[in-house]
């Protein structure tokens, strides 16, 4: 793949949130390493799916990529332009090329704006469409694309059903004519039958508009369905990245295997046949991640050597990239899984961002 | 005789100056001893209200009307007074909720909450109760149970809280366990742990389990019998395998077509149900699903569809059910409907809405 | 097919068409809140009380039978006796021979004026400080948080002082008078409004739709003005209504303490109450009537405020 085909290139991206304590003066007592060194590239016109459980940093990664949360370190290059060092004005102008779809369509729409004003806002911010008539035309076309009726324009978000609200959110992202759309859990707040409508809509829009997607979700089945490449995240880092089909047929990382085996399939025959890899305990706190391989505390294949003290890097194995010291031995069956006893994990680490955090200092700001 | 027999249960919320809401509109199903029964449906189908009505946990408010019967072991739960219902609740029937944090009292240690159940229903006190509580926590897979007893709910993770809640539910070896979306708030690997735990508990103790969920994958792996709910009524009941292999009600067909499967290839199109749950026809005027149905015929509107009983205990509420592969249409559709022959099967793209039923106005793709 | 079922189907068709009428305008949250307010009986009672109060205070002074400062019945007053309720003095006569009814009516205007102006002062100053602090803290980054810190420490100082003490201190500095009462009562409510608006704005700044606007490339000042502030106003409006009630009571308290207007031509309920206490044995009505006036008006504002809180509460939205 040549460089010109790559739309987004992320290199060693880190987002650390300081944990602050203190009554009068805030002292930084540690960092929540929400994203801790992620490399990935998204080819133009393709879909990259990011999957992981809550607290793995996938949403933070999506926001850091769009510079909505300032990254602590690392680079994000969008179509050859480095975003992390871009001046605020230029970044604002770039925003029309990269948009976001949110999980909860209700909370991501301003309840006091009607649909027309929601859709006009971005156009006004970038001076697209010229006058009111020009904007109306663009908005009408966008409504058609997402399958909303024209009378929706004068209505307010609370007058729509969940699925339609998500369509409004998609329309808001589309109206600027972006190249990249970051969709953060685009369907998880919707009912099953509506999920399928939205998934199909996203698929159709990609076909007709040539969009590039970064889809972030906890539902492996949904992610696999719409993605060309899937990245699996665990505690702030990618543990495996593989083409969508290959990830299912040949999962290499123990966590991917466990995740895959945990997803219920609506087919009794499959459910009865397959073997579950049950993980012990909960996700460790991202404020205090385990040393070595982050997964070794729960890994059924963990070995006494290397796993606990050496952090595995992503390495290429037959078309996939995987961060496991013993991936080959596990794949061939040379290593067998063993029982792991659960450790109690305090829920402080739950959620992507703890209650007492403040954004790290923006790059380039004076201190 | 079934352990729990719910017959024509209806729950209506009537508010002043507003139209009455039929949250549950004639739900009937039964649970045999030791059986795992699933209630599946999307939000607003009445699955949670059904369980709350059976347990007598619906908030008492003016305008609430509960009708029908819920016979548990010979007694109609809906006719009981509060006191005897409380006795049955926790001892014979226990319930697990979706959000473990709000179901546990935040200012009381886990241990006290478990021993409270033991004291109330099993008359255990002091050390004996504490010992039993520790054993229960151990049984549901909470590590180091003796120390956990002194801890508060916020000190435990979501999965551990759900385990503690399950420990409380099974403390008195109930004969029926009702689990309302027990894993929806949890991550998928934790969900797998909890489902496995529930399966083990049911297998070991012979407790019957009613599993309420929106996730077809969860019921596929767990339930013996599955009831699919739509608009406050059961639209299809079947054993597990027949339901997934040959769903008859178009709504079941639509649900199955909507779920992306982990084992399907990339790019396979999903077959969503057009419209949204808001496009509901009152059951009195016909089939509630008719406005969204791709197999709709004239007979769907006018009177509520009869329950059709098919072989091996399956039943569906549809006048034009999806055909069973390999059977001739006549065999597949016990109720012969005029004009049904040219209706496309659900696998094909939906035909343009014909007939007198309002077309779905929401969510439908142009 | 039977005729009945066909009719039924036609009915359903019509219903569906009605529900999907294309020309129907959307209903904004404000409109919906207003509809809810209109259906609330408590709100209606509050509104009727306040409506009467406003009418009385606006037109009342032109219709009163006697001038409020005229001492027409001075001669009838003896030790231990004040003329009571009678045809010419509906509410009796006060301690220096003035008509109590006329004074009550004219006093209503003063009470309304003090309440409204004091609340306006509190609302304006408090919202300005709170708005700046909220916008700075929510959207301003590192420097914004510093600005917010400075402003909020100042507000905390105001908040730490007991409100009546603060009002008395201000009144002592400025000297007694109507303006003093307004400023003092207004100053007391400044920290409340500032805290409320700031907290509400910070909460809104963390919401998804602000993030969405940022990702659309909307400028921060525009986000603050068109998204954050409109969505933060509801609690402030409710508080303003409730503050009107407390402002009236506090203004009465200040007048009672002798810090209010000393001009006999302009009666005020609090002052009337203060004057009446010496005659509570022989003419309790002189104290009861102004007290009742204050209570009923405050009740009206409170009822309306509580009803508005319910109407604007997003949690109660369907």
UniProtKB/TrEMBL annotation, chain A:
CDD domains: ABC_NikE_OppD_transporters
Protein origin, superkingdom: Bacteria
PROSITE patterns: ABC_TRANSPORTER_1, ABC_TRANSPORTER_2
Keywords carried by this UniProt record: ATP-binding, Nucleotide-binding, Transport
UniProt-listed InterPro entries: AAA+_ATPase (IPR003593), ABC_transp_ATP-bind (IPR050319), ABC_transporter-like_ATP-bd (IPR003439), ABC_transporter-like_CS (IPR017871), Oligopep_ABC_C (IPR013563), P-loop_NTPase (IPR027417)
One Pfam family of this chain: oligo_HPY
Residues covered by region (Disordered): 346-367
GO-annotated biological processes: peptide transport; transmembrane transport
Positions of the ABC transporter domain: 8-260
GO MF annotation: an example: ATP hydrolysis activity
NCBIfam families to which the protein is assigned, alphabetical: oligo_HPY
Family: Belongs to the ABC transporter superfamily.
Identification of the protein by name: ATP-binding cassette domain-containing protein
Organism for this UniProt entry: Micromonospora zingiberis
Taxonomic lineage of the native organism: Bacteria, Bacillati, Actinomycetota, Actinomycetes, Micromonosporales
Automatic annotation (TrEMBL), chain B:
Database matches in InterPro entries: AAA+_ATPase, ABC_Ni/Peptide_Import, ABC_transporter-like_ATP-bd, ABC_transporter-like_CS, Oligopep_ABC_C, P-loop_NTPase
UniProt topology in membrane: Peripheral membrane protein
Pfam families for this protein: ABC_tran (PF00005), oligo_HPY (PF08352)
GO terms of molecular function: ATP binding; ATP hydrolysis activity
Keyword annotations of the record: ATP-binding, Cell membrane, Membrane, Nucleotide-binding, Transport
Region (Disordered): 341-366
Annotated protein name in UniProt: ABC transporter ATP-binding protein
TrEMBL record, chain C:
Pfam families, alphabetized: BPD_transp_1 (PF00528), OppC_N (PF12911)
Transmembrane segments: 42-64, 112-139, 286-305
GO cellular component: plasma membrane
Coiled-coil intervals: none
Major localization listed first in the record, in broad terms: membrane
Residue ranges annotated for the ABC transmembrane type-1 domain, each copy included: 108-305
InterPro entries to which the protein is assigned, alphabetical: BP-dependent_transpt_permease (IPR050366), MetI-like (IPR000515), MetI-like_sf (IPR035906), OppC_N (IPR025966)
Topology term for the membrane: Multi-pass membrane protein
Domain of life: Bacteria
UniProt keyword annotations, A-Z: Cell membrane, Membrane, Transmembrane, Transmembrane helix, Transport
GO BP term, pick one: transmembrane transport
SUPFAM superfamilies associated with the record: MetI-like
Record localization: Cell membrane
Family: Belongs to the binding-protein-dependent transport system permease family.
Protein name stated in the entry: ABC transporter permease
Organism listed in the record: Micromonospora zingiberis
